[in-house]
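As a representative case, we now present a protein record of this kind.
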Amino acid sequence: MRRRSTILSFPGIVLLVLLLSGLGLTLWWQGGLAFSPGDLSAVNRQPIKLGSYNSHAEFERECHLCHQPLVSMQNELCVSCHIDVSDQIRTKADLHGILENVNRCAECHSDHRGRDFDPRLGSLENLDHALFGFSLIWHQVDYALSPLDCFGCHTDDDHFPVSIQSCAECHADHDVSFMSVHLRDFGDGCLDCHDGEDTMVRFDHADARFSLTGFHLEVGCADCHVDNQFEDLPSDCVNCHSEPAVHLGSFDQDCSTCHNSGTWKPAFLEGQDFDHLNQTEFSLEKHRADFAGSPLTCVGCHGSNVHEFATATCTFCHAQNDPGFIGLHQAQYGDKCLECHDGVDRMHEFTHADFFPLDGRHEEISCQDCHAGNLYKDTPDECAACHLEPQIHAGYFGLTCEYCHLTSDWYPAQLISHKFPIDHGGEGQVECQVCHNDTYDKYSCYGCHEHHMVEIADKHFEIGITSQNLPTCTDCHADGRVKESNLKDN
């Protein structure tokens, strides 16, 4: 049996060569279009040429401009036309300068999807917006829950600039009062603070090494962050608060030693609220300035130690104003200034008549005769506190001396005030002992008037007078007589 030969005949070989040549010529003539997956884009939104072309569609037959397998990497062919992108990659600036895997152009910019397809916008489908410092995690929908598209924030699709006005308008529609204050305080540089996640929503001022407590909670941000300065802002009190003149130079500038943000006054010292009047019994009300009008400071009275005080400081200062008065004052009262003076000053407008009138013989005595040891507070004003009760009426007249005695003269005594008529009965002046048969500060009418207790009680009960009020006869019988008006009133 004869074997069939596998070798093509000469005519077959010629035909195959012709077919392959024709196919090659066709591919050469069409520029590889036979393998094209679709039409190239004719869109060019930027007013620049791509090499010598306006769009990809113009070199659609020249596939080698983008595809040179085994000869050149495709990204190298891309940037040979897209010079602006090449500059971004080289300088690491703008969009392509910060992207990872920037050499894989086709992963973001596809083509062969028709004449109207924009390869640039197509790249946004897989773009990670957070690469540009602003995440879209909170910007998927607006306040009405409608989806947000790119052009809601980027009103110009040329270079996609951010429209800060769009930010302000959108957020103002939700809360116009907040945005008004926010724009006033911080301006319209939204992206200087916000990254879309949002960083500032979770911001805790305490993390910035300065806790907002007390009155600092009421301070507007712009009051401290002038011109939107947030970094490296000093946190010392003196950067915002001028040191009060009252302790200028007396203390260090760590205000927290004595003050807190809850309230500036009262200050606290060694952990306790400090009030100069309550803790020292000396008010600073009259000691804000010296006689020359210069502010008085803590060190002016206490020196370098606020826990120490010498009254010589008082006399030195006041002697400069009136040395004659201070000399006599010290000679008479000594140098224990704080025993009389509390800084308000209670002795400045002192009138003795407000406490005890100094008239008659009392005008002639010195202060120390009554205020022994310079004791002025709670000094008793009863006569018996200074004058012993005379034996002649000891235990009989009581201690209301002013009923019979005057400050001008102790003798002779006389009845100065006696509301009840002492000629009661019409037979002349009645002896004191008739009514005051025990002591002179008590009386009884029953030494003369018949006393039938039950009968008297019954009669008085009829007009509403109880037995408890019976001994106070003069309450109703002020002149010693029974009148119809007495009965009607009772």
In short: The chain has a mean pLDDT of 79. The chain is about 30% helix and 0% strand. The first strand starts at residue 267 and ends at 269. Strands lie at 267-269, 272-274.
